[in-house]
Amino acid sequence: MNIYDFFNSPDVAEYCHSIGYTFNAAEAAVMVNLSRKHSLKKKHAAYRAIIAKYPDMELPKGTNHPYYKSFHKALEKYIAIEERLLEIFLAPEDGAVYRVYFNDDTGENYDYDHFFTTYNKALKYARNKIRREDEYNNEHPGNYSSTTQSMSIRKAYPDKGYRRAARCARVSRGGKISHLYWNYSSFISKKSFWELEGLLDMYIGIPVPFKEGDLVEVADGGSDSFGSGIIRVIDWLYTESENHSERLYRADLFYMSADSHFLSDGKIVNDYGYFCLDFQYPRRELKGEQRIMKYLSLYEQGEIDLDDLLKLQEYIWADTEAGRVKKHCHTNQIFNDKEKPNLQKIPLPWDEGQDGKCDIARYIKLHKEDEICICALMTISRYLSLDKIRREMLDEKLLRIIGEEEELR
Questions:
Q1: Which of 64, 84, 65 is nearest to 74 (CA)?
Q2: Do 179 and 140 reside in the same domain of the chain?
Q3: Are 288 and 335 members of one domain?
Q4: Distance CA 53, CA 1 (A)
Q5: How far apart are CA 344 and CA 362, in angstroms?
Q6: What's the structural domain count of the chain?
Q7: pTM of this prediction?
Q8: Rounded to whole angstroms, how far apart are CA atoms 233 and 352?
Q9: What does the alpha-carbon distance between residue 308 and residue 311 come to, in Å, rounded to a whole number?
Q10: Which sign does the torsion angle of CA 111, 116, 119, 121 carry?
Q11: Do 177 and 214 fall within a single domain?
Q12: Which residue, 223, 224, 304, 230, is CA-closest to 271?
């Protein structure tokens, strides 16, 4: 078994490998548990490989589990319970129904209209919905449509309440159960249940390559992880240098976390305590307003000053919005009006070779002469205002910071 195959973040895996970090049995088991890429069946096989190949160890008492003299024995019990809970979860039962919950880039969406008598029927419905969603997004690349990043299937007992058995499984887009959320069942004592449920939510201090000010995103590229695709700048990294009381306060796995800034609805906002073992460095070129995050990172690392950052932000906002106006006008009816053929001959401010040469007075005159409608005039005015802002923001210093990748569009 290669422990690095179970890492969600390729950058954390590469870093640990490069420094020759040695994992103990508990750390290896936690990293297997966290994997979003592997099914429960493969995880259980990996746990058994850990028991066979990694030395046994004592496990100190943690926030979510008691002291264990033998971690191997505790993990064996954990596997046996989870395999039994999985059987209960998958088995059809009278009075039980399955429901699907989809996680997309807007949050968790409940599917209130569909109930299924078996897990396989619920999974088939969910995968068909994702397939149709993907087909629509491929056929309409210019239209916004939310994309399912992960889903959960929940087993409920409407007549007996919802707290029975293992009532929820996290399922990948490919249909694999990667996590089972435990719920109490009568085959196990309550004491054993509560002691073992949090076994693999223990504190670990895995080294990470990230530092404050780094530009990161959540690994998996949007396939199975909620929050992926969002570019973040690390503001505060909780590392193993934090004191013991702080670790206990933050409750084990939350200790391996980072506060960060990200862009939401045109605003830079804070996010507290995101799990940093899932971070990776961005794999894609930042476009549009996301470019702001790149310069926020440079500011946090002391590469540019505050005045530069604020000017770059204004430039990027204006540049992004001007790009939207330009894209919209290529297909907008008001600029393709067959009743105004002269409009096709009028140079527009976003046409090639017209940058900085157009004056709004010219288009006001054309409107008064009934050559362009009021909608076209207002759109042109908006573009010219944005163009003026982005030009005023750029001086020689900022042009050097931006470089060729940020040429005016």
A1: 65
A2: yes
A3: no
A4: 9
A5: 16
A6: 3
A7: 0.80
A8: 36
A9: 5
A10: negative
A11: no
A12: 230
pLDDT reported for residue 222 = 36
Instruction: Determine the Cα–Cα distance for residues 356 and 149; give it in Å rounded to an integer.
Output: 43
Question: What is the average pLDDT score of the chain?
Answer: 81
Q: Is residue 371 part of a domain?
A: yes
Name the residue among 212, 263, 266 with its Cα closest to residue 234: 212
Q: Which of 303, 331, 349 is the last residue of a domain?
A: 303
pLDDT in tens, 16-73: 999 999 999 999 999 999 898 899 999 999 999 999 999 999 988 877 788 899 999 9
Asked if pLDDT for residue 269 goes beyond 50, the answer is yes
Of 6, 4, 31, nearest to 19 by C-alpha is: 4
Q: How confident is the model at residue 146 (pLDDT cuts 50, 70, 90)?
A: low
Q: Cβ–Cβ contacts within 10 Å for residue 305, how many?
A: 11
Domain that holds residue 356: 317-406
| Between 187 and 316, the higher pLDDT residue | 316
Long-range Cβ contacts of 351-355 (<8 Å, 24+ apart): 355/387, 355/408
Q: What is the pLDDT of residue 297?
A: 95
In DSSP terms, which residues pair with 161 in a beta bridge? Answer: 157
Ordered alpha helix ranges (H), 111-230 = 119-139, 190-197
The pLDDT of residue 247 is 44
Is residue 162 assigned to a domain? yes
Indicate the residue among 252, 272, 303 that finishes a domain. 303
Same domain, 183 and 254: no
Per the listing, tokens 């990293």 go with 31
Q: What are the tens digits of pLDDT across the range 278-318?
A: 899 998 889 889 999 999 999 999 999 999 999 999 999 99
Please enumerate in sequence order all residues whose Cβ is within 8 A of that of 294, keeping only pairs 6 or more positions apart, or say none: 215, 286
Are 167 and 137 part of one and the same domain?
A: yes
- Retrieve residue 332's tokens: 């907008």
Confidence at residue 119, expressed as pLDDT on a 0 to 100 scale? 93
Q: Is the pLDDT score of 165 beyond 60? A: no
In this structure, of 94-108, 114-128, 366-380, the range with the lowest mean pLDDT score is 94-108
Task: Kindly state whether residues 322 and 296 are assigned to the same domain.
Answer: no
Q: Are 288 and 320 in contact (CB under 8 A)?
A: yes
As a whole number, mean pLDDT of residues 70-89 equals 92
- d(CA 285, CA 100) in angstroms, rounded, equals 34
Quick one: three-class SS letters along 346-387?
A: CCCCCCCCCCCCCCHHHHHHHHHCCCCCHHHHHHHHHHHHHH
Is there a domain that residue 401 lies in? Answer: yes
Residue 349 burial (C-beta neighbours within 10 Å; 0-12, 13-18, 19+)? buried
